[in-house]
Write a structure and sequence with these properties.
homodimer; alpha/beta; Rossmann fold; Dihydrodipicolinate Reductase, domain 2; Alpha-Beta Plaits; 12-stranded mixed sheet; 6-stranded parallel sheet
């Protein structure tokens, strides 16, 4: 299956990650040969702009003809361009031509993973994508292989470094979102157009990939409920801190009680400060997995950056190369469980609700009644008077998300409630 | 390679882990079939005492004839008996007979892994052992596969739950070792004979296995420097706390500066409280890996217990079963780097030293001279007078461990030093 005693690699994309992959393939050539059994050779690096200087890439390897490189018959085509097209067409062409594919393209996998997996199956090639979620953290392989004899019940992940950097700064400095975003942009932790990160779209794509692997079900990005961090205020952060919580943008994927469905969601979340995820600060990522037998397992590391992402790509290249040498393939897509992906209303969650209320007798009673009418049980209430107004903070027990949402709707229309100033889901209490 | 459209499994050992593995193979049969492609069937469970009732194991499967079961021709022989013999002979017989092997036997792997790996190679079978280190935490597969394109520089691990439970309690309660050990024994977190845990032997076996995988070098347990926690005092714990540190029993494996050798060591260690390993409390385990490209990665979870360990065994069974179905094998032992395993004296470490000294002029000067004479640079000194005596605490910069040890030897013989009351290595500062 391999070409003349060596493994050939075609790199599509010569940006930050692509250059690092090219550099590492060169610098670690001896180690890689020892680990794979035969040498790995780069056939070419396909880029859009051939005139641009690229550190670490031998200029003789650079080509602007991406199609020809994808169809070069390389053992492994590595796609690091990102975006839907032309990445998808190039990957499909490469597979049809017998090449295995390694990609870091989370957007493409979350939008149209089905087509890629079907092609890998049809043409009997590998499709590996460890670098698509949480950069350097070995995560997909453990989920797909190490926990293959277990039953995952729940995943809680911090999978976007930009938003975790911003939320960590807001927590440390008591600053507002806009202020910290500007700082993150200045430091290069946030892009000029930060929408994909701060609105939760990037995290939603990763949540779809993780949930699909963990629950053996096809999950598309459009199945994922997603809410960003743009509305998280300094006041929310302070309130969380006062209660012993920290706010994180979590990707949550969990099995429903009937075990026939899952809910996948991304939203700002209050997490107790003694939870392992609370200590994940700055641009780090972590994914917390609850499995039936294994119990709680966490993976932690750098979620982005050229070298960390390149490490994950290299790991996949070695794995696919070993498969080629052995004349075999790794495990294909596993979607046999085919669970229903349900809307967030069916999730079981807890809420934190912060209200400005009139400071007069009977207010707490009418607020409590709104919760009771929706079947939501209250865990904790704190009321602070300040003049005519009072601040009222309620934390609920676990309830259906739709019942919690209805409660908030009613509270917004309750006379005694002047305004609902903060609402956020809470996860990680009592081990769930 | 498989027997009549199914994968057959022979379990050697019917204790806590064995019963859980048998139970899960039954309960998860449908999932496992979907994940492997064909059903997995248990041929038998070999035990020493056939008269003992065993929860979760069909009594018709129980047999006392371990040899016959090992030689039954099962696709996979799962060894969960522990100890060196008869485990080794049974594993070797099974491999010679064409069976792949899954084992959780860390002692055997650390003492005589070479023989087992050679047999796996000779007979073309798989040898998987994820459960041998850190129970349910997917760790060996990520090291062996996900980081296969990277270069590991250092591993810091909390790999023994009993000692971490004891040290956590000592930190929380300010109690002494003996007192907390008794509590741990009463709660079942420590064995009646706790030697293997508290003297660091169990951690040393795991360190040998981890280091071997990470550095592609054969490491035997006898190559590992090991020091237990029996001499850690309430005073040490309090001193650590005062300085913003916590004491952990760490397994450390690291590449030497010349990159031609490694040092593997297990000892009580002061770790800064803001280090990710500091938050690993109770019976949990975690392994922190520093790789050249990936940066810092951490794996966290339950290190022991029937169900978590069984989860890891099941993951291996699925992996080996998939290999059998595909007619292939997973990656074999990788020891191509063949680095020199050096004694602890060649490690670069930092020390914390706590002394009772005479409270008179010139004492600090003579103490400082002892460090200087050995080429050890001092990072931090704190002196507290109390009557005629003073407490003197020194933290050093990084130096050769042998130079640090010589310094301590000289201090013990320095007149002004009444006694050296505490010495401990420090890890995890400034990202190393």
């Amino acid at each position: 299956m391999t070409t003349q005693g060596q493994i050939t690699v075609a790199l599509l994309g010569g940006g930050t990650v692509g250059s690092q992959v090219a550099r590492l393939l060169g610098e670690s050539a001896d180690d890689l040969t020892a680990r794979v059994g035969i040498p790995i050779r780069i056939l070419g690096v396909g880029v859009r702009d051939v005139t641009k200087a690229r550190d670490g890439i031998d200029s003789a390897l650079i080509t602007g003809d991406l199609e020809a490189l994808a169809m070069s018959g390389a053992d492994i085509v590595v796609e690091l361009m990102g975006g839907i097209e032309p990445a998808r067409s190039l990957i499909l062409a490469a597979m049809a031509n017998g090449s295995s594919v390694v990609t870091a393209n989370k957007a493409l996998l979350a939008e149209d993973g089905a087509t890629l997996h079907a092609a890998a199956e049809k043409y009997g090639v590998d499709l590996y994508y460890e670098a698509s979620v949480a950069g350097a953290i070995p995560l997909l392989r453990p989920l797909r292989e190490s926990l293959a004899g277990d039953k995952v019940r729940r995943i809680l992940g911090i999978v976007n470094g930009t938003t975790n950097f911003i939320l960590t700064k807001m927590d440390e400095q008591g600053a507002d979102f806009a202020e910290v975003l500007a700082e993150a942009q200045a430091l290069g932790y946030a892009e000029a157009d930060p929408t994909a990160d701060v609105e939760g779209h990037d995290a939603a794509a990763k949540a779809a990939i993780l949930a699909g692997l963990a629950f053996h079900t096809r999950v598309r990005m459009s199945d994922v409920y997603s809410e960003g961090i743009t509305k998280v205020s300094a006041q929310d952060v302070a309130a969380a801190r006062e209660m012993g919580f920290v706010i994180k943008l979590l990707a949550v994927a969990e099995l429903c009680e009937d075990e026939k469905g899952i809910v996948v969601r991304v939203h700002p979340t209050m997490v107790p400060r003694n939870h392992p995820l609370a200590g994940v600060r700055g641009a780090f990522n972590a994914v917390f997995v609850e499995a039936e037998s294994a119990g709680q397992v966490m993976f932690y590391g750098r979620g982005a950056g050229g070298a960390p992402t390149a490490s994950a790509v290299l790991g996949d290249i070695v794995a696919v190369a070993r498969n080629r040498v052995a004349g075999t393939r790794g495990p294909g897509e596993s979607i046999y469980a085919d669970l229903e992906v349900r809307p967030i209303g069916e999730a079981l969650t807890r809420y934190y609700v912060n209200m400005d209320v009139a400071d007069r007798p009977g207010v707490l009673a009418s607020v409590a009644q709104a919760f009771a009418d929706n079947g939501v049980s209250i865990q904790n209430v704190r009321q602070d008077g300040h003049g005519d107004d009072a601040g009222l903070v309620v934390r609920t027990h676990i309830a259906r998300d739709s019942d919690l949402a209805s409660t908030i709707e009613i509270l917004r229309n309750t006379d005694a409630v002047r305004s609902v100033v903060g609402v956020m889901r809470v996860e990680g209490e009592d081990g769930r």
